[in-house]
Write a structure and sequence with these properties.
Blueprint lengths: L1 H15 L9 H7 L3 H10 L6 H13 L4 E2 L10 E3 L4 E6 L1 H4 L14 H24 L3 E6 L6 H12 L6 H4 L2
Parallel strand pairs: 3-4
Antiparallel strand pairs: 1-2, 2-3
The chain binds zinc ion.
């Protein structure tokens, strides 16, 4: 009798313990509070321009004091952020669509796996071709993955390492 009630008590505790927010990034946490309609809109936006991680990267660059251009159409792959005088380009890639290696967001949906596989391979091939074309033309390229936007301190370090220090000069402001 006593034993049984203890067992059900501990089972109840165990069932309560898994916390959905333990491993959630701030972005995931934000997504939890967004309505389903808004969320699917966001999921669609991941493939388009001006996505949430991209806004995070741009506002971080601005805070750090860098001047940049966005989406220069004449460059291969139309990089998300471009530093023309430094000849450096940044792509902000969604982990799912662009297949961030080893990332949990880069899962493959269970249904229509052939469809997804073809789609992913096409995306990755296009990304690689754009990077190769840019590098062949003397550009340095940095990929910022969507999940990296959840850690602004680390991302700031990565961006500064890639770009070198921001320069406050009249010429740079026009960069
Ligand atoms: Zn990722």
């Amino acid at each position: 009798m006593t034993h049984d009630s203890n067992a059900s008590g501990s089972e109840r505790l165990w069932r309560q313990s898994p916390s959905p927010h333990v491993s959630a990034s701030p972005i995931d946490h934000l997504m939890d509070r967004i309505s389903p309609e808004r969320r699917s809109e966001n999921m669609r936006a991941i493939r388009g321009r001006d996505t949430r991680p991209e806004r995070i990267v741009r506002s971080l660059l601005h805070t750090l004091g860098y001047r940049y251009r966005t989406h220069l159409a004449r460059l291969p792959g139309r990089p998300d952020v471009v530093f023309t005088r430094r000849r450096k380009a940044v792509f902000v890639h969604g982990c799912f669509w662009h297949r961030h290696p080893g990332c949990t967001k880069a899962y493959t949906p269970k249904s229509r796996q052939d469809f997804w596989q073809r789609k992913f391979e096409g995306n990755v091939a296009r990304d690689e071709a754009a990077i190769r074309a840019l590098e062949n033309d003397g550009w340095s390229v940095l990929i910022v993955w969507e999940c990296e936007a959840a850690n602004p301190d680390r991302l700031a370090h990565t961006l500064t390492n890639f770009l070198g220090p921001p320069i406050y000069s009249a010429r740079e402001i026009n960069d």
